[in-house]
Design a protein that fits this description.
Elements (H helix, E strand, L loop, with lengths): L1 E4 L13 E2 L5 E3 L7 H8 L5 E4 L9 H11 L7 H19 L1
Antiparallel strand pairs: 1-4, 2-3
Helix pairs in contact: 2-3
Length: 99
């Protein structure tokens, strides 16, 4: 099972967990094979990522992703707004890898 960001969803991917609303009602059940219409619907939800079957072997290790972020922001150590963006991005990545 892989956590895939909404921007990276493609038709044919299969949900490994259901998508539910705040009250627990299932909006898209586990096993749903995504279509363009499903993806548009998901894009209108307040989600950052969904669980998709397979794909874990293609995911970079979390430590490698975090190291890449550190490298990309290394020239902006003295810029508070850039450091805030770096912190937010790293928190987002941590959340993706917790799924």
């Amino acid at each position: 099972m892989a956590s895939v960001t909404i921007a990276n969803l493609k038709p044919g991917m299969k949900l490994s967990k259901p998508i539910m609303n705040e009250s627990g009602m299932v909006l898209l059940p586990q096993g749903t094979v995504l279509t363009d219409a499903h993806i548009r619907r998901i894009e209108n939800m307040d989600l950052t990522a969904v669980s998709i079957e397979g794909g874990n072997e293609q995911r970079k290790p979390k430590e490698e992703v975090l190291a890449e972020i550190d490298a990309r922001f290394s020239l902006s150590e003295d810029q508070p707004l850039m450091q805030m963006m770096k912190r937010i991005l790293k928190e987002h990545i941590e959340g993706i890898y917790q799924s």
